[in-house]
Amino acid sequence: METPGSQSSLHRANLERVVRAVRSAGSLTQAEIARTTGLSAATVSNIVRELGDLGTVDVRTTSAGGRRARSVSLSTDAGIVVGVDFGHSHLRVAVGNLAHQVLAEEAEPFDVDSSADQGFSRAEELVARLLAMAGVDRDKTIGVGLGVPGPIDVETGTLGSTAILPGWRGINPREELAGRLGVPVHVDNDANLGALGELVWGSGRGVRDLAYIKVASGVGAGLVINGQIYRGPGGTAGEIGHITLDESGSVCRCGNRGCLETFTAARHVLPLLHANHGTDLTMPRVVQLAREGDPGCRRVIADVGRNVGHGVAQLCNLLNPTRVVLGGDLAEAGELALGPIRDSVSRYAIPSAARRLTLVPGALGGRAEVLGALALVLREMGDGVLLGAVNGYRQS
């Protein structure tokens, strides 16, 4: 039996500290582990050797700064994680291992708004198919990350706004999917998962403070503060789509007038182009036409960018992030959107905050949220799951 402050207790804590650092980053050199954890190089070397013998980590020779180094990652055989991303019009599922390798991935059009039951049934089918495609045993699944297009109420686990997904009224997404798959499920909104995906795999790598702005059917921000997703006590942090731009503007689905979302979300923007481009227009098509030189589409993209920039400027003034990553359909427009966003930030943000800000497009495109769902499991799972029995003691 371990006692607080005992040698075995301290050793266990150091093991978990190293495992936590590696699973959050994907892979680290032993020198990076030492810097991240504050442990000495000798202690890290001994722990890595022990974890290697246990089968928890894989170690390979690499180079860092032109010098030979030992890169440490979680074992590819240590377990499987699953990501499920529900968008308003799509379902995407990915299967990965604990070494941050994606083994199988698939997306399909799906009307998620209509029925939660149909959505979860289809997700269950896709998970089973992808596990089979990856050739992995379902029993090795450690957990599932689930993304939904709306805020999650921290206390109840249900969607914080029934106006966003009316067909999901009264549904607890985490409990529903966990009951179907028989494994722990971790749930978050799509903007937070997009931020996490870009932080781990994309344009946010190496950054401790950033905001991920997703512009699609709605507008939301995933906030990363000191390397951690900030959700707020009620789970609604980052809802910048409901910043008021015009008190006399159009009525938003939240009940207020003139929200940022009413100037930038697809369902408000696309009707502006229907007269010249028809009613079958989609936001990806608008972006494509804008890139090809269509003046009307370019004007709409620029206007959306300027309005998004107004929201980004307010984030800069409040949180002073070092990087903002633009995601969703708008990111594909590149400088056609980023330029107007920068113009608004320069105009409305405090100069010292604007100077320190880097604005970049997301590197993961439509995969950001599902990869963020995988990263969510890797961050939330207990370190003891990976350690099992070590040196004669077990996880309590």
Structure characterization notes:
The protein has 396 residues and is α/β, with parallel strands linked by helices. The protein has 15 helices and 13 strands. The protein has a five-stranded mixed β-sheet with strand order 6-5-4-7-8, with helices on both faces. A five-stranded mixed β-sheet has the order 11-10-9-12-13, with helices on one face. A hairpin with a 4-residue loop joins β5 (90-97) and β6. The chain is globular and about 70 Å long.
SSE layout:
Blueprint: H1 7-25, E1 27-29, H2 30-37, H3 41-54, E2 57-64, E3 67-74, E4 80-86, E5 90-97, E6 102-109, H4 116-134, E7 141-148, H5 173-181, E8 185-189, H6 190-201, E9 210-215, E10 219-225, E11 228-230, H7 261-264, H8 266-269, H9 274-277, H10 283-291, H11 295-319, E12 323-328, H12 335-348, H13 351-355, E13 358-361, H14 368-380, H15 384-387
Parallel strand pairs: 4-7, 7-8, 9-12, 12-13
Antiparallel strand pairs: 1-3, 2-3, 4-5, 5-6, 9-10, 10-11
Helix pairs in contact: 2-3, 6-14, 10-11, 11-12
Secondary structure category: alpha/beta
Strand percent estimate: 15-25%
H/I helix tally: 15
Quick check: average pLDDT? 88
Structure summary, number of beta strands: 13
Q: Report the uncertain regions.
A: 389-396
Topology pattern, helix = H, strand = E: HEHHEEEEEHEHEHEEEHHHHHEHHEHH
Radius of gyration: 22 Å
Give the spatial strand order of the biggest sheet.
6-5-4-7-8
Largest sheet entry: 5 strands, mixed
Summarize the structure.
The protein has 15 helices and 13 strands. With 396 residues, the chain is an alpha/beta fold.
